[in-house]
Amino acid sequence: MERSLSRRRFFAVAPAVPLLFSQQPAAPSVPPAFPAHDPDLVREVVGVSHGNIARVKELVSARPALARVSWDWGYGDWESPIDAASHVGNRPIAELLLAHGARPTIFTVAMMGQLAVLKGWIEAVPGIQRTRGPHGITLLAHARAGGAMAAETLKYLESLGDADPRYTDAPLSDAEYAAIAGDYAFGPGATERLKVAKNARGIVTITRTGGSERNLFHQGRLVFIPAGAEAVRLRFEARTLTIADGALTVVAARL
């Protein structure tokens, strides 16, 4: 037996070496956000949890931790998958998420008609029934979304008289709308743009380029709050838009 390859024999077998390595499976790419979840995946699982049970099952079966993620639609309007299922009254998706470790909330309890649990929660934390859920959707609205199985829960919340607090939304004249509609820039980047417009339902919205459309509620004198983020204020004046979120203030100029 030869103890080593001759130069001639080495080059005779060398062409097979690249072929050998090229047949190995490629290593999976590591997501840029690792070890945090991929933001696009988080946004997807929250979105499909409103109604696409097949896709929800596919996602959370592969990665159960996705049942507990949250997505900020803008201005601090955070939503988890079970939040999404709860406010549209999708009990099968809510049950699927719970089976994969989702954390139930008071809004989940209201939608699922768990009256004893809800009463205990309200007795333990007086006034919690006035807390709004994602997008500003009220506790009573979640019970209404639960349908027949939440009928007694809905009746109980109606008896409280304060479980359905709606946002103030003052009338906006055509002239006032014309004064605020359009595109605004808060920086030089292509995505540093905000668009104020009305959607198909006639609701005034604001959208960052590449972001999500957010409903606005008029508080009077061209001051608005975005859905699900009542602490934020958007003020229009002199062709500028000022967004105040606590210590953060962003000023955008109308283009």
Strand content: 15-25%
What value does the Rg take, in angstroms? 26 Å
Q: Return the domain count.
A: 2
Roughly how many Å apart are the termini?
82 Å
Give the beta-strand count: 10
Spans of 5+ residues with little confidence (pLDDT < 50)?
Answer: 16-21
Can you tell me the CATH class of the largest domain? Answer: Mainly Alpha
CATH topology of the largest domain: Serine Threonine Protein Phosphatase 5, Tetratricopeptide repeat
Task: Assign an overall shape.
Answer: flat
Summarize the amount of helix as a percent range.
25-40%
Strand arrangement across the biggest beta sheet? 3-4-5-6-7-8-9-10
**What profile does the largest beta sheet have?**
8 strands, antiparallel, barrel
Q: Structural class per helix/strand content?
A: alpha+beta
Counted by DSSP, the helix tally is 11
Q: Output the helix-strand order.
A: HHHHEEHHHHHHHEEEEEEEE
CATH architecture classification name of the largest domain: Alpha Horseshoe
Structure overview:
The chain has 255 residues and is an alpha+beta fold. The chain folds into 2 domains: 122 residues, Serine Threonine Protein Phosphatase 5, Tetratricopeptide repeat (Alpha Horseshoe); 81 residues, Lipocalin, CATH 2.40.128. The protein is 35% helix and 19% strand. It has 11 helices and 10 strands. The protein has an 8-stranded antiparallel beta barrel with strand order 3-4-5-6-7-8-9-10. Strand 4 and strand 5 form a beta hairpin. The longest helix has 10 residues. The protein starts with 6 loop residues before the first helix and ends with a strand.
